[in-house]
Design brief:
Elements (H helix, E strand, L loop, with lengths): L11 H13 L3 E5 L1 H5 L3 H11 L3 E3 L14 E4 L6 H9 L2 E5 L5 H4 L10 E6 L13 E4 L2 H8 L9 H13 L13 H11 L5 E4 L3 H9 L8 E2 L10 H11 L5 E6 H4 L5 H8 L3 E7 L4 H10 L15 H7 L4 E3 L6 H10 L4 E6 L23
Parallel strand pairs: 1-2, 1-4, 2-3, 4-5, 5-6, 7-8, 7-9, 9-10, 10-12, 11-12
Helix pairs in contact: 3-6, 4-7, 8-9, 8-15
Length: 378
Amino acid sequence: VAVRDAAPQAPIELIEEAARMINEAEQPVLYLGGGVVHSGAAQQAVTLAEQAGLPTTMTLMALGAMPMDHPLSIGMLGMHGARYTNFVLEEADLLICVGARFDDRAIGKAAQFCPRAKIVHIDVDPSELDKIKNAHVAINGDVAEVLDALIPRVKVQLRKRWLSHVDSLKTRFPMQFDALENPRSHYGLINAVAAALDDEAIITTDVGQHQMWVAQAYPFRRPRQWLTSGGLGTMGFGMPVALGAALAAPERTVVCFSGDGSIMMNIQELATLAEQGLNVKIVLMNNNALGLVYQQQSLFYGKRTFASRYAGAPDFMKIAEGFGIPAVDLDLAANPRASLAQALQTPGPCLIHASIDREEFVYPMVPPGAANTEMIGG
């Protein structure tokens, strides 16, 4: 039986140096990655942020580590994060990176990421330290244990001037959630799903535009509320992980957001869903395209699209019904919001189909090879 190696004990002098840097910083930012969730350190991260007055950003894999509506949350950074988030990071004089790896989707052009900031980097994996960005203090250890040691050494600070400036950037460069009240739009559909569920629901996604829209718009409020494929970008991930979540937590509603491209990667799992009768709702956002590929080809390859859009699509309603799974088509619903809520609240499996305009792109967006402050759209 394989036994996981124990995390190394972090040197106390490095923890004390990190605390000193946090205490002396004027414009610090806390940057949380998936390691915070994996180590069960979300509460410690929130405590550190509240104690030291730290605006806090999260990677795709960390969403929910701090509630998205927390006053100190500045949401997701990076390629499809908010403009204000990336602008706040541009002005930081200290970056406290906890359980994150500085991947290119999060930081854009590495040389221009947080150009004014000293860096404290805490990670259980020593190979991540000083790999992409050199840290002024690099701490190898379990992030929960390191934060437990760090918090008592950090002063209580309100940082009114810095947080007021962060709020002004939020006001000047907000996320644009168009048609939020229209459940037939992409953001409106996500908003309607969230409104019909409580925070105990588990949200999974496949990979594509729908994944980014959910990351931007869903109000995650707890760790492990959100299950998605990050760096691997695995199309077909959403339904199998939803089945696993439903088996592990049968008392919860599980919602899998998918696209017409991703769902066909593992569509045979509808048989498992029907066989087990799990409380999994598949919200299928269908634009007859491989949306992220189509978006890249449209924006950066002169609209020379290839193998990314389709004249037609399978009849997903009939496919679901063929597997014995109830299906709801929001395109045909007289009251799509009510039909959606009823489908989500009825126990058992269900496929919920909604057509999405192919020309709806994920914005804002950092172009390939650009810095995070060079976002387009949104």
